[in-house]
Amino acid sequence: MMNQQYIAYFILIVGIFSTVFPIHVVTLKCKAGFENIAKWCFSIHLESKSLSKSREICEKTGGNMVLLDEHMKLNLLRKYIQEKRLIHKLYVKNKEALLKSYQELQDLLTHHKKYCKSYKKNKLKKPTEEFYVPNAKLPVFFDENERARLTTPPGYFIANSSIPSAGYGAWTMTGVKKYTVLGEYEGEEHKKEGNQPYSWVIYEDKERKKKHYIDASSPAKSNWLRYVNCARNVREENVFSFGCDGLVFYMTTKDVEPNTELLTWYGENDGRFLGITRLHPASEMNLKSASHIRLSYMPKDSLKDYLKYHQNWFSNKYDKKSNKTYHGIIDIYEDGTWTMQREGNYTYYTGEQGLLVPFVCEHEPLEKE
Ligand SMILES: *[C@@H]1O[C@H](CO)[C@@H](O)[C@H](O)[C@H]1NC(C)=O
Ligand SMILES: *[C@@H]1O[C@H](CO)[C@@H](O)[C@H](O)[C@H]1NC(C)=O
Ligand SMILES: *[C@@H]1O[C@H](CO)[C@@H](O)[C@H](O)[C@H]1NC(C)=O
């Protein structure tokens, strides 16, 4: 009996000394607006801001964006957020709009698969026919160099693009309903990659080992869809390309107004070639069920294992030897668990400002009180 009581007291004393003592006895002085937590000075900003604005605010108040360089720091921050019940206030601005655009993307993928299944079965017979706008038939005699232009179907025309220095573009003359299929996209078949912005790749097997390209760089050997330019953001994107049965088709992603240029996403590689990235935040973050906060981090060895378990973005490549810092978004769940990913360039979906999210600043403590 006595022995057990003795053990219980012992544990209690150890408990007090290891958790309460170091935090409460040493108080450090922080600048106005910052709070002292252990050996750090933090300020949490609940208003959702862009990356550049968050940085600016941290600097204006005399600090920097918090830098995650040890485990302890993040653990304490998380505890702080939970204890102060801030979790419900850490929300992404325009989250509803972002979730909606993500849903639209998913719907499109479902819809094109459905279309393709039906196409494989029925080719261009019913029921897919009513949503299908075939290429115009070529006349018997024509100038070869005009081939592509001559395949433009009624209701569409080729004219200068609305995008500066993009050359010609493909335009609607009349309104076009959402999910209308255009094409097929014609070009020369190559085994090697052709002229980048005019080539679509067709994978011949599920493992993506065998492939060929449909290259429309020559107007004499392609059709009007070669004039569809690359969209710079989701607002102007109105056409989606997809492979089906070894062919490439385009499908409208929304009801398109008359006199509108058709613009599509050229794909990850060609998009980057044009300086455009198309990352949707919802494909990297858990926008549905988590709260979010921005910080910066340094992928040092001391954090490697820690990050390995909590990092969402496995394609996140960085040089562990350099002291480069990255900006990350932490998703915090109700049960206290979290994941983290490097903040991507989401401007294709979010607009120029990027992701608007709460953030944390820090500064070195001033002196011991
Ligand atoms: C189309 O663009 C070309 C080259 O930029 C220009 O010379 C021409 O005037 C434009 N045409 C129209 C109708 O705007
Ligand atoms: C993000 O991408 C857009 C184009 O998609 C580009 O204009 C912008 O400069 C990029 N922003 C950053 C911070 O890299
Ligand atoms: C990174 O910082 C550490 C000290 O914090 C320094 O010893 C090291 O040389 C730096 N590495 C590089 C590549 O700058």
UniProtKB/TrEMBL annotation:
- Domain SET spans what residues? 154-267
Q: Mind listing the UniProt keywords for this protein, alphabetically?
A: Membrane, Transmembrane, Transmembrane helix
Lineage of producing organism: Eukaryota, Metazoa, Spiralia, Lophotrochozoa, Mollusca
Question: Which InterPro entries has this protein been placed in?
Answer: C-type_lectin-like/link_sf, CTDL_fold, SET_dom, SET_dom_sf
Originating organism: Magallana gigas (Pacific oyster)
Q: What residue intervals traverse the membrane?
A: 6-26
Under the heading Gene3D superfamilies, the entry gives: Mannose-Binding Protein A, subunit A, SET domain
Put simply, this protein is called SET domain-containing protein
